[in-house]
Amino acid sequence: MMHPVILFDGECNFCDSSVQFIIKNDPQGLFHFASLQSDTGQELLNKHNVPSDIDSMILIEGDKVYYKSAAALRICRHLRGAWKLLYAFIIVPRPIRNAAYDFIAKNRYKWFGKKESCMLPSPSVRARFI
Fold this sequence. Notes:
The protein is an alpha+beta fold. The radius of gyration is 14 Å and the shape is globular. A 4-stranded mixed β-sheet has the order 2-1-3-4, covered by helices on one side. The longest helix has 19 residues.
């Protein structure tokens, strides 16, 4: 079985912190990662016909692709501890969930800053980056 892949904005400080948080709370190493800007990220976007205007963390599970709040909630569902409980918000209508997600995504550079390049993973988690 292929590991779920999270595509993230490698230049975004908030996104980088989110990836670090997921790694810390995913001790089984379920998720693998690729930045949207990487060759692998671009190949996966093309393979799964992701629209070019999607400005979101993307979760690929098998042949299914999840964007925005659906991706975030599905990721939470697999994390250890109380984070799993956030998946209950999946019952909130998607337009409402995504409005909150879009507000954060729209302001992420202003609030958290931007990097010049993607972070380099530590040797212990490097194998999870594709």
